[in-house]
Amino acid sequence: MRITAYLLVLHTVAAMGDKFTNPRAVLFDFDGSLAQSEEAHRKRFVAATGVACDSARWDAECVGRNTEWIVCHLLGVDEPPKEVIKDLRQRVVSDAFLADIAPTRGGLELLSALREAAIPVAIVTSGVRAYVEACLERWGVEVEYIVAGDDEGVPHKPAPDPYLRACTEFDVAPADCVAVEDSPSGLRSALAAGIPVVAIANPANAGLPLLDEARAVANDLTDRAPFGM
Question: Is there a contact between 101 and 40 (Cβ–Cβ < 8 Å)?
Fold first, then answer.
């Protein structure tokens, strides 16, 4: 889907906002969706692995993947070295790293509006739990539930399992939720779970046919129409 198609979808959302029903739960991916963080993560993995990876390669190959997968991919190994994983997990909760993570425009305001409307919110991410919790604490916000990439026994995106776990926690049917996603693997995960998706447009998903299946495509989270608000 080209830029003109993005604008067409955004126009349609604005014109038909009253037709979007209020979801019973909203499930946010974190990196690239609720948080603008991919460049900070790219630099973190380059520093920890010593492997060159420019923004184009990161967007095409690594966005939406879990820590272990990215390490194995960059290093060309089957098992991630323990010292590299340890280094990455120390870096991801450092003050210097967290200072580079900004909420997506309109995201914190949307979280506040959802709380006021008594609509539960979950984070469904391939990132590590300690990092997500540190960001949320830094921003002064809370969510009802987190499914993280380092949770035991939960298959990673693009499997639908992380999103289905959040639906089960809230006792809500997938079709009655809305997911916010940006990465190809995340979009596949949410759509496979049967959840309507609001896609955040970025270089990692540009031209992706899955965008045609999204409830809406937007550049940020300032428009609340796709959330029935």
Answer: yes
Cα gap 97→229, rounded to integer Å: 33
DSSP element (H, E) containing 168: helix 161-170
Superfamily name with CATH number, domain 3-36+102-227: HAD superfamily/HAD-like (3.40.50.1000)
pLDDT tens, residue by residue, 11-39: 333 333 345 888 999 999 999 999 999 89
> What is the spatial distance between Cα 197 and Cα 191, in angstroms, rounded to a whole number?
7
pLDDT (tens digit per residue) in 142-155: 999 999 999 999 99
The pTM for the full model equals 0.84
Give the C-alpha separation, 120 to 130, whole Å.
21
Region for 217 from its dihedrals, namely left if φ exceeds 0, alpha if ψ lies in -120 to 50, beta otherwise: beta
Q: Which residue, 179, 180, 182, 178, is CA-closest to 206?
A: 182
Q: Where along the chain do its domains lie?
A: 3-36+102-227, 38-98
Nearest Cα neighbor of 156 from 77, 69, 35, 44 is: 69
Tokens in use for 77? Answer: 């190994």
